[in-house]
Amino acid sequence: MARLRYKTFRGNESYVRAVVDNALDAIITINEKGFIESFNPAAQRIFGYSLEEALGANISLLMPEPYKSQHDDYIKRYLKTGKSRFLGVPREVLAMRKNGSVFTAGISASEMRVGSQRQFIGVMRDITDRKQDEEKLRNAHMEIERLFSAISEILIGVDQEQRISRWNKAAEETFGISEIDVLGKLFTECGVKWDWEKALALSSKCMRKSGKACSAELAYQKLGGENSYLRITINPIITEFGRFNGFLLHGNDITEQKKSEDQLNLASTVYEYALDGIIVTDGDAVIRSVNPAFTQITGYTAKEAIGENPRILKSGRQDEDFYQQMWASLKEKGQWKGEIWNKRKNGEVYPEWLAITAIKDISGKTVKYISVFRDTTEIKRAEEELLKQSERLSQAEKLAAIGELASGVAHELNQPLNHINITCQLLNKIAEKKKIDKSGLLEEVRVISENVERAVEIIKNLRDFSRKESSEIYPVNVGKAIRNSIKMFGSQLKVRNISLIVEIPPGRIMVIGAANRLSQVIINLIANARDAFDTIEDDRQKKILIKVEDSADEAVITVKDSGPGIPDAIKKEIFNPFFTTKPPGKGTGIGLSIVYKIIQEFGGKLEVESQEGSGAAMILTLLKPPGGVQ
Ligand SMILES: Nc1ncnc2c1ncn2[C@@H]1O[C@H](COP(=O)(O)OP(=O)(O)OP(=O)(O)O)[C@@H](O)[C@H]1O
Ligand SMILES: [Mg+2]
């Protein structure tokens, strides 16, 4: 081609010279011996030789070893064989400057004939920079490739035809789909199991937004089928002419992050809705946060509590030692648990179960205290009730055992006593008929008879007591039972100067029980009140009040006296069978145990209220029949 051009420009040498002299490439001609015949200014600049130095020199001057030594032979071989791998084919060679430095040159050489002479012309360019740029580009490209495969983010390239152009290692591993299986496939057919609706909506949104990246979270199925979450971002690739040229999608697995978010949400829900109070303080024990249960239990609002020290709740029931131990445990073990009495805003002192945990930072400094506490007032109350119940139960057990015994004793005793009684009556009659004035004898008989009566009464009591619970219960008119019972006392209260006050609301009040047994209860209680006055010496007003209070489900009968009251020490004992404080022959101590037993049979409750020195009250709570039977 060079030859052609040369011919075309023959006769226009000045034009050719201008081109050669101004060319940016080195243009060198040599003869068939290899000596330089022309060496243009660009050649002089590139190689550093002046025209004078170059002209006539062997072209091998411009070559490093081993080419330098081989070149003469090369030309000779060509001239002989006409074969060259060099001529007419642009290629890269190594060239050497005058200063000995070697560089890569691009060369295009051809042969021409000038007259009979054969000449070779070479056009050369220093391509060191280009080579370096190419190298840089190649390196950059490799760098990108390495990045693509090393990056833990999923990267998927999609071209303008919606086909997969990139699919990195993270994508392979996450979805279990290898690059070679998806490259060139349509994006929608890449086989990823994720929320496609969302993914496609995102890609079209991103195109609508003309060049802006869009992100979204979506559910996907991991290799292995586990349901997980990804955060994907789609970056559109826009050419410099503004044309949409596909997009690059990158994604991060955010399942763990989501889980911890969920956990955080859960924790805050627990905090909000827990029944236990929660206090969070800083390392200096200044309250930073409290939950709604805290406010409910203590009465302090969050606003009032925050900034304060938890000691605002101190009740004063624990001493300094207690708090010192608490702090010592927090310091040593990082936690403290126990029961503590605290004070509500309204001044009420209450028991709580408290657990405090110290939260430390990595340096081991306590940065937070978290206290969780539960108001145990209700639990304590229930415990006490349970204790009472178990006391009542053991009382009932005792009664049952004694009941068995009593029924045996009663049976045995009854017959001989009857016999004695009859004998005494007979004795009495005989004594009267024969008019024997044996007043002494009569007196003896009277005493026998009285004792027998008493023995019979004891047995009767024992019998009542041992009676099995077979006796029926039915609706009973309370007012009637009380009025019947009072009759039994006749004038004996008046004689003793005891006034009896009865307060019964108008109308019939029905309770579950049995008429005669309810009377028995009331008689026993009145008798006890009556007897209690025997022990007082002051001249206080002697009063017995019987009061009935009616409510929807229950009726409460109170028998209250103004007597000496019951000392705390014996309060628990008075229901025990045979417990009495009365002198021998006066009381058997069985009255209240019978009362207790009967009330139990009725399904009711018996309580005693008394202050030593100022009277006693027996309170009977009886159930009303279901459906309000009248
Ligand atoms: N209203 C009362 N005031 C003071 N003490 C009472 C009263 N009621 C009962 N007590 C005390 O309880 C004890 C037991 O009473 P309980 O009725 O069981 O037996 P008692 O009255 O001694 O004998 P009994 O009833 O068998 O004749 C009495 O001895 C008395 O000490
Ligand atoms: Mg009694």
From TrEMBL:
<dbReference type="Pfam" id="PF13426">
    <property type="entry name" value="PAS_9"/>
</dbReference>
<dbReference type="GO" id="GO:0005524">
    <property type="term" value="F:ATP binding"/>
</dbReference>
<dbReference type="GO" id="GO:0000155">
    <property type="term" value="F:phosphorelay sensor kinase activity"/>
</dbReference>
<dbReference type="Pfam" id="PF00989">
    <property type="entry name" value="PAS"/>
</dbReference>
<keyword id="KW-0902">Two-component regulatory system</keyword>
<keyword id="KW-0597">Phosphoprotein</keyword>
<keyword id="KW-0418">Kinase</keyword>
<dbReference type="Pfam" id="PF02518">
    <property type="entry name" value="HATPase_c"/>
</dbReference>
<dbReference type="InterPro" id="IPR003661">
    <property type="entry name" value="HisK_dim/P_dom"/>
</dbReference>
<feature type="domain" description="PAC">
    <location>
        <begin position="214"/>
        <end position="266"/>
    </location>
</feature>
<dbReference type="InterPro" id="IPR001610">
    <property type="entry name" value="PAC"/>
</dbReference>
<dbReference type="InterPro" id="IPR003594">
    <property type="entry name" value="HATPase_dom"/>
</dbReference>
<dbReference type="InterPro" id="IPR013767">
    <property type="entry name" value="PAS_fold"/>
</dbReference>
<feature type="domain" description="PAC">
    <location>
        <begin position="336"/>
        <end position="388"/>
    </location>
</feature>
<keyword id="KW-0067">ATP-binding</keyword>
<feature type="domain" description="PAS">
    <location>
        <begin position="263"/>
        <end position="309"/>
    </location>
</feature>
<keyword id="KW-0547">Nucleotide-binding</keyword>
<dbReference type="Pfam" id="PF00512">
    <property type="entry name" value="HisKA"/>
</dbReference>
<dbReference type="InterPro" id="IPR000014">
    <property type="entry name" value="PAS"/>
</dbReference>
<dbReference type="InterPro" id="IPR000700">
    <property type="entry name" value="PAS-assoc_C"/>
</dbReference>
<dbReference type="InterPro" id="IPR004358">
    <property type="entry name" value="Sig_transdc_His_kin-like_C"/>
</dbReference>
<dbReference type="InterPro" id="IPR035965">
    <property type="entry name" value="PAS-like_dom_sf"/>
</dbReference>
<feature type="domain" description="PAC">
    <location>
        <begin position="89"/>
        <end position="139"/>
    </location>
</feature>
<protein>
    <submittedName>
        <fullName>Diguanylate cyclase/phosphodiesterase (GGDEF &amp; EAL domains) with PAS/PAC sensor(S)</fullName>
    </submittedName>
</protein>
<feature type="domain" description="Histidine kinase">
    <location>
        <begin position="408"/>
        <end position="626"/>
    </location>
</feature>
<dbReference type="InterPro" id="IPR036890">
    <property type="entry name" value="HATPase_C_sf"/>
</dbReference>
<feature type="domain" description="PAS">
    <location>
        <begin position="12"/>
        <end position="82"/>
    </location>
</feature>
<feature type="domain" description="PAS">
    <location>
        <begin position="140"/>
        <end position="185"/>
    </location>
</feature>
<keyword id="KW-0808">Transferase</keyword>
<dbReference type="InterPro" id="IPR005467">
    <property type="entry name" value="His_kinase_dom"/>
</dbReference>
<dbReference type="InterPro" id="IPR036097">
    <property type="entry name" value="HisK_dim/P_sf"/>
</dbReference>
<dbReference type="GO" id="GO:0006355">
    <property type="term" value="P:regulation of DNA-templated transcription"/>
</dbReference>
